[in-house]
Every structure is written in C-alpha cells, then in structure tokens.
Specification:
Elements lengths: L10 H12 L15 H15 L12 H22 L4 H6 L12 H8 L5 H5 L9
C-alpha cells in the first residue's frame, strides 16, 4: 500500500517507487502463500536461507512515524498506570476508574465530588473545621 501511495513518507517505499520508475518492466503482484509458484518458492527459500545464514547482515529498518507514536503512547500509558497503581493518594477514584486512559469521561460535577469524596460532605468539611463532626 505504501508503494502505491504517491504521497508516502516512507524512505523505503520511496526508494522502491524510484526503482520501479527506472525499470518499468518490473511488475509487482500479490501471490497467495503455498500455491506452488516457482518464483515465489525460490524467493521463500532465499529469504529463509539469508535469515539462518551465519553471514547474514543485520539491517536496521527505520520505524514509521505512526508506529513510533503508537509505541511511545503505549509505553507512556503503561508507565502512568504503574505509577497510579502504586500511588497512596486518590484511592477512592482508583476504585471507580481502575485503568488510566486518554478518553475524557465528562461526568457531572456532583458525581466527581462523590467519587473523590471532595464535596459538601461532613467527613470532608470536618478536615477544615467547617463542620462539627465527620458523620
């Protein structure tokens, strides 16, 4: 798909596009695996041989920008979840929202006050001397 996209930003796809323009006699097509095409079987054999060869070179293939963004986002959310699970504060909210996520919940103010226990409740107001008992 990247090779057929004229606006692709992938350097590998751009290089292949350039080669296909230079050599117009080369045709690319999709072949189902295990159908017995001689060229496909030979390509599989050569690919497997190059992987298992002791002389095989390691080639660094750059990640696409979108895959890097996705990976970094997943790692950040995992780290955020770890920190949140270990935190000693905010336990009342943690009981309701176990997993961290980037999606907003748009809950009414009263519900947020109830969940966080930061509202017009005697137990909360007692902490600041605004109520005479915490029941």
């Amino acid at each position: 798909m990247a090779i057929t996209n004229p606006k692709t930003t992938s350097p590998i796809a751009r290089k292949i596009q350039d080669l296909l323009h230079i050599y117009p006699h080369i045709r690319l097509g999709w072949i189902k695996a295990y159908v017995g095409h001689l060229g496909n079987e030979k390509a599989d054999e050569l690919a497997k041989g190059s992987i298992t060869s002791a002389d095989a070179e390691t080639i660094a293939v750059p990640f696409s920008r979108s895959s890097l963004k996705r990976e970094l986002k997943e790692r950040a959310i995992e780290k955020w979840q770890e920190l949140r699970d270990k935190e000693k504060y905010g336990r009342s909210t943690h009981k309701v929202l176990h997993k961290v996520e980037l999606k907003s919940h748009y809950w009414p103010r009263q519900l947020i006050q109830f969940i966080t226990e930061h509202g017009p409740f005697p137990s909360y107001l007692k902490r600041f001397g605004k109520h005479h008992h915490s029941l």
